[in-house]
Automatic annotation (TrEMBL):
Protein name: (S)-2-hydroxy-acid oxidase
UniProt-listed Pfam families: FMN_dh (PF01070)
Signal sequence coordinates: none
The organism of origin for this protein: Owenia fusiformis
Chemical reaction(s) catalysed: 2-hydroxyoctanoate + O2 = 2-oxooctanoate + H2O2; a (2S)-2-hydroxycarboxylate + O2 = a 2-oxocarboxylate + H2O2
Needed cofactors: FMN
Location of the active site: 273 (proton acceptor)
Residue positions binding FMN: 116, 138, 172, 249, 271, 304-308, 327-328
SUPFAM superfamilies: FMN-linked oxidoreductases
Annotated residues for binding of glyoxylate: 34, 140, 181, 273, 276
Length: 383
């Protein structure tokens, strides 16, 4: 890993530096492609950021903003900031310390971290590291060898996460099959060392990152890829196993948001999986107003996808999100500087958010409403 000489002051700096660092490492360009890619023609990937750029602020002045506070609660747990780290796979391809460095970076200021099923570090190793921050565990529902839901595997993972002290389960619901992505479709990613070192699969043989496409001949007890037959019933089944709040990640449609409430989910995570699933999906920030309108204050709403500045965080809060999560920016921090890089990416976002709040006339998250967003009469808007 080469040293970063330029001072990195915004997330774009981190993105460029991360790309540069990886370009000089063995397998680096392929790793970069895996992390940065979107599905298909990458339209949603671009749209996620563009949709934030289209929103403009309309500020209030002469408000006493000498004291500002970003604290909030997530599922009843106090966090110092509404910015968390979204689950992403295989962090040891970014940095030798992998997810351990990511969680340390998050914990420096107490940000929420969501650990992926497809992490390179076991959920127990992250939990027992005595690193103090709010931790949630992300779950995929897998196939068994007979193409049924691998319930034994899911239930084992859920019990392990609960026993280890995770405070919520994030069930990813936007990946019944893998999106149209080049590096997995061509199987290239499986050649990168550590890509398939997936200790959360513990006793069972883990599927590869491209397993859902290639198929597998594992024994009946082993998960062999994602199960595409999962429906809303899965929530009541999970509730027979765990008392942890269940958050559904990957909702975009207001009717699905209503169904999430009806089926007893505790949180809705608005996401198009960072543009990695179906290309041309709308941006999460554009889905947020319709979902807020549909569910009002009945459930906590989270959002990810294209959050690249503290102003983006304020825009999401203004439209009704309780918190936002970043995926790729945490990976850029990890590549550039391990735990310090992750911590600094989060600090940049916090500082930018703090400035945006001051310049808009806000002192706390409760005060932020869509009044700070400009509705341009030239364009139709669903704000
Ligand atoms: C390299 C990579 C791996 C990911 N792995 C997972 C995963 O294991 N589980 C999951 O629910 N989402 C996964 N995601 C999606 C993220 O949780 C998140 O939805 C997305 O990255 C947000 O967009 P952003 O990268 O623009 O912040 C992954 C995203 C990336 C970029
Ligand atoms: C077989 C599915 C692997 C998905 C692992 C990580 C992920 O969600 C991603 O977007 O990549």
């Amino acid at each position: 890993m080469g040293p970063v000489t330029k001072k990195l002051t915004c997330l774009k700096d981190y993105e460029e530096a991360a790309r540069e660092i990886l370009s000089r490492r063995p397998h680096g360009p392929l790793i970069w492609q895996y992390y940065s890619q979107g599905a298909g023609d990458q339209r949603s990937l671009k749209e996620n950021e563009d949709a934030f750029k289209r929103l403009q602020f309309l500020p209030r002045i002469l408000v006493d903003v000498s004291k500002r506070d970003q604290r909030t609660t997530l599922q009843g747990q106090l966090v110092p900031s509404p910015i968390g780290i979204a689950p992403s796979s295989v962090h040891k391809m970014a940095h030798p310390m992998g997810e351990l460095a990511t969680v340390k970076g998050a914990a420096k200021h107490g940000h929420c971290l969501v650990l992926s099923t497809y992490a390179n570090t076991s959920l127990e190793d992250i939990a027992s590291s005595s690193i103090d921050c709010l931790k949630w565990f992300q779950l995929y529902i897998m196939n068994d060898a007979n193409s049924n839901i691998a319930r034994g595997f899911a239930s084992d993972l859920i019990k392990r996460a609960e026993a280890a002290g995770y405070k919520a389960l994030v069930l990813t619901v936007d990946l019944p099959v893998l999106g149209n992505r080049r590096v997995e479709r061509e199987g290239d990613i499986d050649n990168v060392p550590l890509a398939n070192d997936l200790p959360n699969f513990a006793k069972v043989k883990s599927p590869t990152l491209s397993a859902s496409l290639i198929g597998s001949e594992e024994s009946a007890s082993s998960p062999t890829g994602l199960n595409p037959s999962v429906t809303w019933d899965i929530i009541s089944w999970m509730k027979t196993i765990t008392r942890l709040p269940i958050i559904l990640k990957g909702i975009l449609h207001p009717e699905d948001a209503k169904l999430a409430v009806k089926h007893g989910a505790s949180g809705i995570w608005i996401s198009n999986h960072g543009g990695r699933q179906l290309d041309s999906l709308l941006a999460p920030i554009d889905a947020l107003p319709g979902i807020k309108e549909a569910v009002k204050d009945d459930i906590e709403l989270y959002l990810d996808g294209g959050v690249r500045s503290g102003s983006d965080v304020v825009k999401a809060i203004a439209l009704g999100a309780r918190a936002v999560f970043v995926g790729r920016p945490a990976l850029w921090g990890l590549i550039c500087g391990g735990e310090d890089g992750v911590a600094n990416v989060l600090k940049i976002l916090r500082d930018e958010m703090d400035t945006a709040m001051a310049l808009l006339g806000y002192t706390s998250l409760e005060e932020i409403t869509k009044d700070c967003l400009f509705r341009n009469p030239m364009f139709k808007s669903n704000l």
